[in-house]
Amino acid sequence: MTSLHDKHLVAGVDHAAFPTFDPASTVRFYRDTLGFPVVHSVCAAGWGGPDHPDFIHFFFDIGKADRIAFFYYFGLDGPDMSEGAGDVYARFGAGTPDWFVNSRHLALHVDSADELMEYRRRLDASDWPVEMQIQHETIESIYTHDPNGYLIEFTRALRPVAPQEHLDANLTVDALVEVVQQPGGTLDQLLVRKAELIVERAEKWAEQQTLLEEATEK
Q1: What is the pLDDT along the chain (218 residues), one digit of tens a residue?
Q2: What's phi and psi for 91, nearest 5 deg?
Q3: Taking CA 102 as the corner, what is the angle to CA 69 and CA 139, rounded to the nearest 5 degrees?
Q4: Cα distance between residue 204 and residue 32, in whole Å
Q5: Residue 175 and residue 165: Cα distance in Å, rounded?
Q6: Are the C-beta atoms of 128 and 147 separated by less than 8 Å?
Q7: CB 139 within 8 A of CB 151
């Protein structure tokens, strides 16, 4: 019998869920503008304790059996949005930089430039036009905020990610974990520690490569 211990068992995102205080605009954005079908809903009366309001939990298909879902609580007033920054789910204090607030977002993948531009067309023709289009290191993305203030990204790969980049990412994260445990850790310290890890692990990598080559030759 094959053991499941240490295996990667997750097959993707079942759903990401958020609250909404404007379900009508939320449906108009995701279903009517973006074309994401409504695929499931739960009408919940009397759930939770005596102070828990009735609610509906509804889901949109975002592809490959993944879904984005929303909770609407009947009779619950929305938060005061006159101060601070963020969305209806997470509010940050006044003066919080926009780049920090917008680091919390949902990115949806498309396969081609044509598909990315089709979503740009749909958004630009709606009440939620694209706010930014940018090419990152390996991806191109467009961004807008949905009716709830959530930042939504559509992104496509500019090129495949090489296996060497997976190795680099793990080195970077290992160095990060070490550096941030010290007071005042900096990016410079991370890069120095990453270089040290490369030296420390080089001999083991060489041994693994030799074993792989020998196994391939057999």
Answers
A1: 567 777 887 888 889 998 888 899 999 999 999 999 999 998 888 777 788 888 999 999 999 989 999 999 888 887 776 777 777 667 777 777 787 777 788 999 999 999 999 999 999 999 999 999 999 878 999 999 999 888 999 999 999 888 888 889 989 999 999 998 888 888 899 999 999 999 999 998 888 888 888 888 87
A2: -105, 135
A3: 85
A4: 54
A5: 15
A6: yes
A7: no
Range 189-198 contact pairs with CB under 8 angstroms and sequence separation of 24 or more: 197/171, 198/171
Say if pTM beats, i.e. exceeds, 0.90: no
* CA end-to-end span of the chain: 27
Which are the contacts of 101, defined by CB distance < 8 A and separation ≥ 6?
85, 86, 92
Pairing of strands 151-157, 139-145: antiparallel
Long-range contacts of 31-40 (CB under 8 A, 24+ apart): 31/60, 33/122, 33/123, 33/126, 33/128, 34/119, 34/122, 34/123, 35/122, 36/60, 36/61, 36/62, 36/68, 37/61, 39/67, 40/67, 40/69
Q: Which residue has the tokens 């005596």?
A: 50
Residue with tokens 């694209």: 130
Residue 192, phi then psi, degrees to nearest 5:
-65, -45
| Separation between Cα atoms, residue 5 and residue 115, nearest integer Å | 39
Amino acid present at 145:
H
Main-chain dihedrals φ then ψ at residue 184, nearest 5 degrees:
70, 30
